[in-house]
Write the structure tokens for this entry.
Amino acid sequence: MTDLADVTTPVGLSGKVVIVTGGTSGIGLACVERLLAAGCKVSVAGRDEVKWTEHTLARHERARFISADITEEAAVERLVDKSIEVFGRLDAAINCAGTMPAGSPIHELSAEEWDKRCALNLRGMFFCLKYQIKAMREQGGSIVLISSTGADRAIAQGAEYSAAKAGVVRLARSAALENAANNIRINTVMPGAVMTPMLRRAWGENSAQRVSGAIPMRRVGRPAEIAGAAVWLVSDDASYVTGTEMVVDGGLLLT
Ligand SMILES: NC(=O)c1ccc[n+]([C@@H]2O[C@H](COP(=O)([O-])OP(=O)(O)OC[C@H]3O[C@@H](n4cnc5c(N)ncnc54)[C@H](O)[C@@H]3O)[C@@H](O)[C@H]2O)c1
């Protein structure tokens, strides 16, 4: 299969400054890889700088790690400020930081677990949007939120995940409407099952085999395939696209 990082990149990316949350792992890391290959300057937001320094990309001259826990509003504000301080402006953001379903049925789900997961998967996305939009009000820009097919499909033992991911879609649509006249485009990507550390944690080492049978294309997705959609959405090729959801799921939502 083609290495997607080598494919011709969408237009207008070179020189753009982009924040990627959850950029040290999985889908976020694949976004960072593609953005750097396209000539962007990338603020890699994450919680673990040591983990980031293990990547070869950590030595890339256009990549800069910025520590941020997106469940903390002040940390998200600092992330945006720091990124602008380092690179001089903010053109785009791809918000990937998130977590998996709790794995409990509703009648056993504690309020603490609900709060913890929604604080990351939904409230954290609100903080990211809030400060990224503030930074883009004058010049415009483009923001992508990573939701999930779980926003549309029921998930047993994952109701809080499904609710939060559906919330992300609606949050993005309202934000897109509010900011269209300011030329800030806001879109959502809804991945199906993607082979990342999160999927391995949720389904175990044999997760690809366990999940593939339920997917019409009979395989799980690769992080680069989700990154391809997210990076296209922040590029100038998508200059008239806002308030939409791009489903990247091998046909899962057709079932
Ligand atoms: N892998 C899948 O099958 C799949 C499917 C649908 C949606 N998603 C979504 O895609 C996104 C990326 O997931 P992934 O599969 O790449 O998982 P991953 O675990 O590989 O990456 C998640 C990233 O988020 C970061 N993160 C977690 N909590 C954070 C916090 N409080 N502050 C800042 N960063 C934090 C982690 O450090 C990690 O870098 C998530 O929002 C996830 O819900 C994944």
